[in-house]
Design a protein that fits this description.
With 587 residues, this protein is α/β, with parallel strands linked by helices. The protein has 19 helices and ten strands. The longest helix is centred in the middle third of the chain and has 54 residues. It is elongated, with a radius of gyration of 36 Å. The protein binds adenosine-5'-triphosphate and magnesium ion (MG).
């Protein structure tokens, strides 16, 4: 237990450092907390005053002044509580907002492989659930723990001050009441956590179904999905039922203990009042303090469990913030050689994805691409074409060999600087849930409206964008669901055109276009490829024929390289690809 507590405090420590910028707030919050604890304790004395000096003594004047004291104390308590609650909650919200930002700032610069090794749902829950838990720790649990500790200690002192003999009874009685409460409380907490987890499962399940509703309906799986979902919900209900039962027992036993204890106190204390050993006011004050001590003890026990849960959350968040990106800029940056003739060179590059270390996605790749060249990458599905692009953008580092960009090893460049030189139009165009302006401007933040329109025109997107309900202001839906595949590609192309990079990476950029728009886009691409080094993963003959060089990949290896005619003459696989994919009739 002792060891665990140490760990709890230690894991929460990094969170405390988030409070540093708000020292003044923390100071005033602590002051308010001290004030309210002191005032709550003095309320018992006020009560004693009202009873003994007031109605027990039969003096209206005394009663009046005692009541005034009470009103003064209560007002002070109200003001103090307002300040304490406001400041503490403010701090909780502030810290959790800062933590969220810090976690996100870390996430966006992490190497992409991290997101393959870790489930996205889990990462998301660190951003939302875990930070919310930490918010409640800073904003309420911490303050509750501190306040309860103060009132607990102060309350016991006041008990002794009021009546020693009764206090000794209490000190024996209270632990007897607290122990079973702690036992049931622990169970309740365990069940609430289980309950939360099962609810999260329900959410995940429903989320997946809703996202893929068209697949569900097209395979007529509604009934099965209903049944499967119902199972999930029932599981959650069963867990919730256990929690509810424990909680009911807890509440019932608390009531029994508290009022049983109170009655015992009244019996002993009442006898004391009758025999004249203590005054009625003293007994009232005593009961008041006893209840205060009991409540504080219960709060401390509850908060302790919460702190442990938060320690887990803190640990996960801190872990996440400590992850270092595998793709880092070097200590000493090399300048790019802007006159280099060789734009890109792969030297003996072999690479396997971190999630599949035994299998080469690329093997012994040697490839040089000169300034201004248009190089087509062709090959069967899974050959490693897209992987080649990912290495060029330095989303991963190869295990063997090296890649040069303008004569400099990629590892000697700042990743951002490298990526600024290229524009990638990916196989599945990625659009954000925003309007057309936003999505095209993603290529160059701060681009003027006419630049965006110019790029859209070059990508042959302008005409269809104009026909959208709100033109460039049209909202495209989540991941651009409101556009057709070909339209999405043209928006993605416009984004790349707007970036105006030196190197263009196109991954099957023309594959989802009809013949008419393909012709347009082809013309746009040719214009775009002028004075630019271009790598195209091509599935179309028109692209392949215009390339300066064709690279044929299969199973991660380059098996042939040359012009269209050369490859047709030399490579069986290329011949077959041409027949199957490029529909060679007539050429
Ligand atoms: N993130 C990943 N993790 C593990 N393996 C991967 C990953 N991405 C691709 N692969 C594997 O690497 C190999 C090459 O994939 P790649 O995407 O480069 O193929 P491709 O040539 O682009 O194919 P296609 O023409 O179908 O797009 C495949 O065997 C694939 O299964
Ligand atoms: Mg691919």
């Amino acid at each position: 237990m002792e060891k665990k507590q140490k760990k709890t405090i230690k894991t929460l420590l990094p969170i405390v450092s988030f409070l540093k910028p708000y020292k003044a707030m923390v100071f005033f919050a602590l002051m308010a907390l001290l004030l309210t604890a002191a005032v709550s304790l003095s309320l018992g004395q006020g009560l004693k005053l009202v009873i003994d000096n007031g109605f027990a003594a039969g003096s209206v004047d005394n009663l009046r002044s005692a009541i005034f004291v009470m009103i003064g104390l209560v007002s002070l308590l109200a003001i103090g509580t307002f300040c304490r609650f406001y400041l503490m909650s403010w701090l909780g919200e502030r810290v959790s907002a800062d933590i969220r930002k810090a976690v996100f700032d870390r996430l966006v610069v992490l190497h992409p492989a991290y997101f393959e090794e870790n489930r996205s749902g889990e990462i998301m829950s660190r951003l939302t659930t875990d930070t919310t838990l930490l918010q409640s720790i800073v904003g309420s649990s911490f303050s509750m723990a501190l306040r309860s500790t103060l009132t607990f200690i102060g309350g016991i002192a006041m008990l002794f001050f009021t009546n020693v003999q009764l206090t000794l009874y209490i000190l024996i009685g209270v632990p007897m009441a607290i122990l079973p409460m702690m036992f049931f409380g622990k169970k309740v907490r365990k069940f609430s956590k289980d309950s939360q987890d099962t609810i999260a499962d329900v959410g995940t399940y429903a989320g997946e179904i809703i996202q893929n509703i068209k697949v569900v309906q097209s395979y007529s799986r509604e009934e099965q999905e209903k049944a499967a979902f119902s199972d999930e919900v029932e599981k959650a209900f069963e867990t919730a039922k256990k929690r509810v039962r424990q909680r009911s027992i807890l509440i019932a036993s608390v009531i029994l203990m508290v009022f049983g204890g109170l009655s015992a106190m009244m019996w002993v204390g009442g006898n004391g009042v009758i025999s004249g050993a203590i005054t009625g006011g003293e007994l009232a004050a005593f009961v008041f303090y006893a209840m205060m001590v009991g409540m504080s003890a219960a709060t401390i026990a509850e908060v302790y469990g919460e702190l442990q849960r938060a320690a887990g959350a803190a640990e996960r968040v801190v872990d996440l913030m400590a992850v270092e990106s595998n793709i880092l800029p070097p200590a000493k940056l090399e300048p790019l050689n802007d006159n280099a003739q060789k734009m890109i060179a792969f030297n003996d590059v072999s690479f396997s994805y971190p999630s599949r270390p035994d299998e080469f996605a690329l093997k012994d790749i040697n490839l040089t691409i000169n300034r201004g060249e248009v190089v087509a990458l062709v090959g069967p599905s899974g050959a490693g074409k897209t992987t080649l692009f990912e290495l060029l953008e330095r989303f991963y580092d190869p295990q063997q060999g090296n890649i040069l960009f303008k004569d400099v090893n990629l590892k000697q460049l700042a990743p951002n600087k490298l990526r600024d030189e290229m524009a990638l139009v990916p196989q599945n165009p990625i659009l954000f849930s925003n309007d057309v302006w936003y999505n095209i401007r993603y290529g160059k933040s701060g681009a003027k409206d006419n630049e965006v329109i110019e790029a859209a025109k070059k990508a042959h997107a302008h005409d269809f964008v104009k026909t959208l309900p709100k033109g460039y202001e049209s909202y495209l839906g989540e991941q651009g669901v409101r556009l057709s595949g070909g339209q999405k590609q043209r928006v993605a192309l416009a984004r790349a055109i707007l970036k105006d990079p030196e190197v263009l990476l196109l991954d099957e950029a023309t594959s989802a276009l009809d013949a008419e728009s393909e012709h347009h886009v082809q013309a746009a691409l040719e214009e775009l490829m002028k004075d630019r080094t271009t790598l195209i993963i091509a599935h179309r003959l028109s692209t392949v024929i215009h390339a300066d060089k064709i690279v044929l990949l299969d199973k991660g290896e380059i098996i042939a390289m040359g012009s269209h005619q050369e490859l047709l003459a030399s490579s069986k696989l290329y011949q077959r690809l041409c027949e199957l994919q490029f529909d060679l009739t007539g050429d």
